[in-house]
Design a protein that fits this description.
elongated, 17 helices, 581 residues, nine-stranded mixed beta sheet, 27% helix
């Protein structure tokens, strides 16, 4: 009450402002007007927006915005903050590009922390310059029995009640929800009863399917890949998030099709980077997505609302963020031109955090040591043996996994030599194997479409196990051993030598490097893989998704090679007699 009283006194010019942004113009996301205005602050909140000059004293910070346009800080509604980067490195990078709030996936954290630890971690992220909110997964995006056992109504229900949590989802297991899965239905009901959102995951969904998931409690979906699919969602009252990511850079096409439709696009669209891998972020974060949307013809009001106010309204936060207006938190981007959404300066919580494009008010380094499960990776699969990577039992109707972007289609193949299925490098085939992090099992197969090299091993995988690809089993064993010896990471071997190495010391999935260094390193990796024949959009996501069972058609799992659509194991995994277990 006292804070609001003082804010009111500043608005009425009875108390000196703590900051005054003078001489700028505001792009008003409520009305679409571009108007000159003085913006007056008391501490972290906006007290006044208008023509009058404020009461000031010697303590008032005066910020000159002459010639600049003020827009609200951008809001990312769908972040995956563990795609090789870690949440804090990503947040610092996003802030530099004008994003002042992010709603984050909890999948990686949920699989490694107990509930008390996860809640403590969330509590530590609430006071950052970039506001960090979270969502709670109701399914593991993987068929691992060990992971599925973590998804109890008690665990997910407790986490949904945390104040930093804004939604449940994304529901990659929506077919199970529609089939009557009691645990999923309970999670959706719990979220809705708490007044929180439920995000769907419905690529290619028909109007009939979208009707069903909306009736089941889903409130938004980011999986539309055509303008018509976006309109299907909007017509049924769902929010539609336009995705521009390293595997689906869709915004230009979506915008052109939507603009041609003549539909009202101002109120229920949002924009997302959808967890793009580091090389794709070279041009920016949400500012880059906004730039693509504007260039494709999305009207400025629709574009800037999609990155600010619409997100705030969707999550019920518009009384505090999403606009430049009295009572709102002072999250403000200073632009040279509406056509260029990358800010010159960024204010978050009433403080200038970025000046002339440089971060000047960074938070202190995060102490990962308080969360041992996140700062160590100790797989028990060493020493790896070349014999582990044999593709056994050629009597099976053995498929080659044909990689198309991130989809794996079955195709005829698998040359048999001396009773063993082997890859044919001339056809772009490699051995591929998933080794359990506890050293108990291995799933092996043949993969086509990732290029050709001796060995590429990675602890960065959708299941958290060790993935390795290659044409040389000796090199594959060596690469796995190197990844495990350095406590998680990626190693690429070719022509008898190591050509790439990246440490991922945070749980085997995340780097501790700042974003600029990580982008440089992963740029090098992508270039090396493309030279060796990789042709898809994003090899890092393709690698990650080989063990994620929410995508068709064939995936590597703890039970073996899974036919996702048919829900059957085509080639079983086998046990490892590992002396390290």
């Amino acid at each position: 009450m006292e804070r609001r009283r003082r804010l009111t006194e500043v608005a009425m010019r009875r108390r000196p402002a703590t900051a005054w942004i003078r001489g700028g113009r505001i792009y008003n996301v409520y009305t679409g007007e571009l108007l000159p205005a003085e913006v007056v602050l008391w501490e972290d909140r906006i007290a006044y927006v208008g023509e009058k000059t404020p009461s000031v004293d010697d303590e008032t910070a005066i910020i000159d915005a002459e010639g600049l346009i003020l827009v609200p800080g951008y809001l990312e509604p769908h972040a995956h903050p563990f795609l090789l980067y870690n949440p804090f490195a990503l947040a610092a990078f996003a802030l530099r590009h004008g994003t002042t709030g992010m709603v984050n996936d909890n999948l990686y954290l949920f699989h490694r922390l107990d509930v008390d630890e996860l809640e403590a971690f969330w509590d530590e992220t609430t006071d950052l310059p970039v506001r960090m909110w979270w969502w709670v997964r109701l399914d593991p995006q993987n068929d691992s029995p060990a992971l599925r056992r973590r998804y109890t109504p008690e665990r997910t229900g407790r986490l949904l009640a945390h104040p930093a949590v804004l939604q449940a989802g994304e529901l990659t297991a929506w077919p199970d929800l529609l089939a009557g899965d009691a645990a999923l239905a309970a999670g959706v009901d719990r979220a809705r009863a708490l007044g929180k959102r439920v995000e769907g995951h419905n690529p290619g969904a028909s109007v009939e399917t979208l009707n069903a998931v909306a009736a089941a409690g889903v409130t938004a979906c980011h999986e539309a890949i055509t303008g018509d699919e976006v309109l299907r969602r909007l017509r049924l009252g769902l929010y539609a998030t336009l995705r521009h990511s390293s595997i689906r850079p869709d915004v230009p096409t979506l915008v052109r099709q939507l603009v041609d439709s003549g539909a009202d696009l101002t109120s229920r669209l949002m924009l997302t980077t959808d967890g793009s891998t580091p090389p794709f972020l070279r041009d920016g974060f949400l500012d880059a997505v906004l730039r693509e949307a504007l260039a494709a013809g999305l009207p400025p009001l629709a574009a800037y609302r999609a990155a600010t106010l619409n997100v705030a309204v969707y999550y019920g936060l518009d009384g505090d963020i999403g606009g430049i207006a009295p009572g709102r938190v002072a999250d403000i981007n200073f632009l040279e031109d509406l056509a260029n959404p990358t800010p010159v300066h960024v204010m978050s919580g009433g403080r200038l955090r970025v000046q002339d494009g440089q971060l000047v008010d960074a938070p202190p380094p995060f102490d990962w040591s308080r969360y041992p499960a996140l700062c160590r990776y100790a797989p028990r699969v060493t020493p790896a043996d070349p014999d582990w990577f044999r593709v056994l039992d050629p009597g099976f109707p053995f498929p080659v996994m044909d990689l198309v972007n991130v989809i794996t289609r079955p195709s005829e193949g698998g040359r048999v030599e001396n009773g063993e299925v082997v890859p044919v490098p001339e056809r772009g085939e490699l051995y591929v194997a998933l080794l359990s992090v506890d050293g108990r099992w291995i799933t092996t197969g043949i993969l086509r479409g990732f290029g050709v090299f001796d060995a590429f091993a990675s602890s960065f995988s959708g299941s958290g196990d060790v993935m390795v690809l290659g044409r040389d089993r000796q090199a594959m064993a060596r690469a796995v051993n190197e990844v495990c010896a350095m406590g998680g990471g990626m190693v690429l071997l070719d022509e008898g030598r190591e050509v790439y190495r990246l440490r991922l010391p945070l749980g085997g999935c995340m780097s501790d490097l700042p974003m600029d260094e990580l982008m440089d390193s992963t740029d090098d990796l992508v270039r090396l893989l493309r030279v060796r024949g990789y042709r898809g959009n994003d090899p890092l996501y393709a690698l990650f998704f080989l063990s994620a069972t929410n995508l068709p058609f064939l995936r590597l799992t703890a039970d073996g090679i899974l036919d996702v659509k048919g829900k059957r194991i085509l080639v079983p995994s086998r046990a490892l007699m590992n002396e390290a277990v």
